Each structure stands twice: as C-alpha cells, then as structure tokens.
C-alpha cells in the first residue's frame, strides 16, 4: 500500500541518481565508512575518506587497495569476514554482516560493524561488493565496562554472602551462648548454646527480654545499663569483679557467668552481641583452688616455724641464709651472722624441770628481738641454740648488737610459772661474710667456731671471727 512517504522515497532515489551531492552527503554524514569492491579484480577497492579517518589514517595516502585494510584488520576477524563473503556470494540470503576489529593508527582497537551486499550480473554472479562501516568502539567499551562492573558486583555479592554465612555460622556454632539484643533488651536471635545454658528454646528466647535472664535482685538497673552501653559501644566485659555476674536459668538456678558485649552497627540499626560463658563450675574450681593455695601456704609456713618458740626453725634459717648469701653475691652488701647458745642449760632442766626449760626457750626470742631490726631473721637452730641473720650489717655492728644481747640476757630475770625466778647467761659467736666465702656454710661454720671459742673461754661472752 502506498504511504505518504512513498513519493518522497522515489524522489530521493531519483535525486541520488541525478545529484551526486546527495550521495556525497549521505556517505560522509551518515556512515563511518563506505567501500566498493571489484570482485573480479579483488585488489581494487574504493574506500571513502571517512573509512580511513575512523581508523586514524590520512585518506590521501591511500591507494584504494584491498590489501590496505586487510593488513590492519584483526586476522581472525578477517577469516570470519572472508568466510561470510563467500557464503554471501553463493547465497544472497546469507547476510554479509559481522563485527570486526581494526588496529587504529595509534595502536588502539577500533570495533567496526561491517555490512555488505554483493552486486550481481544478470546471471546472479557477484561482480562487486558494496559495504558500510559503523564505528561501534564506544559501544563496545561501554559493554566491557558494564561487564566489568557486573563481574565486580558478582564478586562483591559473593563475598558479602560468604561473610554473612560465616558470621551466621560463627554466631550459631560458637562454644559460648550468644544473644543478639536490641537497645530495649529484646532478644532478636539466640544460638544453640544459649538454649543449653538457659534451658529455653531459641523460639522462646527470641520472645524474651534479657532482663528475664537476670536474677530479680540485680535486674533493676539492667535496662538503663543496656542503654548506656549502646551509647558507649565498643567491646567490653560486663561486671567489674570476677565471678559476680549472675544469670538465671529457666529452672530458677542462678549461674555465675562471664558476659562480653560487642556493639554491631548495621544499616538496620545497632544491636549488642552478648557472649555468655557459664563460669559456675570454673568459679567453684577457682574458689576451691584458692582455698587449697591458702591451706598450702599455711602448711608451708608451719613447716618453717618452730612449734615450741613460734619463731623460725632450722629449715627456714637455712633457706634464709642461702637467700641472703645469694643476694649479697649480687649486690655486695655486708652480711653478718650471730649464733646464740644458752649456757649450762642442762642445769636449768635438771633443776627446774623440762617444762621450765621450755618456758625459758619461749621467752628468750622476745628478749633478743627487742634489739633486732626489720629484715633481721631470728631462728631456733638447735635445742638451746639460736641464730640471728643480719643483712646489710658488718661485723662491727653485729658485735655491738651481740654485746648488747649478752648484757641484757645477764640482767634479765626469767620468771617461771612454778614461781621461781631464773638468771642465765648466753654465749655468742659472731662473724660476717668474707670475700673468699664460696657459700653460706662457710659463714655458719665460722660463727659456730666463734661460739665454741666463747664457750671455751668461760661463756657469757661474745667472740668474733
Ligand atoms: N627444756 C628443753 N630442753 C632442751 C630442749 N632441747 C634441748 N634441751 C636441753 O638442752 C640441754 C643442752 O645441754 P648441753 O648440750 O649439755 O649444753 P649446756 O648444758 O647448755 O652447756 P653449754 O652449752 O656447754 O653451756 C640438754 O639438757 C637438752 O636436753 C627443749 O626443747 N626443751
């Protein structure tokens, strides 16, 4: 059926035949290349100016040879184009239409949609090919960008999905109870461990408020605390003191728990992730261990105390002397030792009885300790023999102290529970650590020797070596 434009179409055809300016306008203005190829002489091909301009070449340099474009077309695309050309020559229904890549003079790739039609003689034999180029490079670049964006999006989606799955898994499979809580304390999500810890199903927990899981007495400030936490954020442990956080099970049992809070901010709002660890057994264990440690300490101390006089015993003395010797070796401080022995103690026992002798042994340390300093160590090292370790004290100062002890003991009257009063004297041996002493025994042996001297010189005296 004829339409309103039909006569214009016919007129245009006529115009193109008669006025070459129309053809010129069309080929330069509407297309990115026009070519006309002599199939019988395939080296001859006319290409319009734009054909070459699009590819970056000066058309005036070109000789209108088919080899000129065949050299710069992508060689794989050339095969496709030639293949399509043959098919089209054999069968005009087969379109000559493909996208090919050319190398622009500047090295970049130019994407061309290349279409053509064979001009045939009366026998239908192709004589010429008339073809067009349309530069679709920008389209192709946009397509590549789009593909890149699409694959980036795919990648981000995959990463986000994985992260979500992982965090879901971490939440669910964590060894501790996890509760996701909103600012009002509503439980949004709970994991399997939370079910086990509190004795409620997940569905039940997700209908509850965290205040339902706290013993009544301490839940009063809880909601206020939650709101404060949401303002402060961060990750922190709840409760200042260890073992003081309590949680309530469905069966009413109060648990000792450790709660760690983490604030998670999402596009849909903030929520707190509360990780709750049941410390009941651990707390019980810690308490029992602490008890054991205190007990052991007491026992340990007992093994170092002389049961009669309640001052340190021989064992502690040996340890203390060893320690002081080591510390002296490190800091080169003077160290002195006094050995104290009661004179004729056997006679005290013989005269007043063993328990009276014990009373003397108990009283004597208090007498001696009146003249010792903080840091000095008095120990009972034998039946009626005592030792006094004097750190940071040289022999001269030790001698002054020893003389004072001898004097005060001689002045002292020991009051016995039997009513008698007893006078006695002491013999002392004093020494200090000398450079050649290789261990603490050297010190002890010298003090012992000095004490022996005091005894043999008549007792009630001090000898220094
Ligand atoms: N009451 C009492 N006597 C003790 C204790 N340990 C040792 N003795 C006595 O202390 C006395 C020590 O006697 P000796 O070693 O002969 O020395 P001494 O009589 O003090 O004479 P000298 O040391 O030489 O001055 C002994 O009679 C022991 O039985 C004790 O724990 N309590």
Automatic annotation (TrEMBL):
Catalytic reaction(s) noted: 2 GTP = 3',3'-c-di-GMP + 2 diphosphate
Required cofactor names: Mg(2+)
Enzyme category, top tier: transferase
Domain (PAC): residue spans on this chain: 96-148
InterPro entries: Diguanylate_Cyclase, GGDEF_dom, Nucleotide_cyclase, PAC, PAS, PAS-assoc_C, PAS-like_dom_sf, PAS_fold_3
Gene Ontology terms: cellular component: plasma membrane
Domain GGDEF: 333-465
GO molecular function terms attached to this record: diguanylate cyclase activity
Enzyme Commission number(s): 2.7.7.65
NCBIfam families given in the database record: GGDEF (TIGR00254), sensory_box (TIGR00229)
Protein name stated in the entry: diguanylate cyclase
Organism the protein comes from: Litorilituus sediminis
